[in-house]
Specification:
4 helices; about 120 residues; mainly alpha
């Protein structure tokens, strides 16, 4: 196992994997003229890199974090990456309604980590 602390390694890998997955799921929205089969194949190719990072993140992180905590970390990172992606790549800003919804999800994440000893 690498010498980085488990939380740093786990969160770093999850962050990188989510960047790939966000592009796999939403990057094609800028290329609506491209044939659907082509964007599906491109998305699968991008998603492969997501799995190459996601699987080790969960493998290294499990034990230090519970499976529920790993999933919660992944979801919070996903929303954070998506918010930046939506604004920077798609040119869509996150409105106050989405901000409130994301805040409730963050509150839920806080509850998942309570009592972690």
């Amino acid at each position: 196992m690498p010498s980085l602390p488990v939380p740093v390694l786990t969160i770093g890998l999850l962050l990188a994997s989510n960047i790939f997955m966000t592009f796999a799921w939403y990057g094609h929205l800028k290329f609506k003229a491209a044939p659907l089969y082509l964007v599906i194949l491109a998305s699968w190719g991008i998603a492969l890199f997501e799995y190459v990072l996601q699987v080790p993140a969960n493998r290294y992180g499990h034990g230090h974090f519970s499976a529920a905590q790993l999933k919660t970390i992944q979801e919070v990172i996903t929303l954070s990456v998506f918010a930046v992606f939506s604004w920077a790549y798609l040119g869509e800003r996150i409105g106050w309604q989405q901000g409130v919804g994301f805040a409730f999800i963050a509150l839920g994440a806080w509850f998942v980590f309570q009592g972690r000893g």
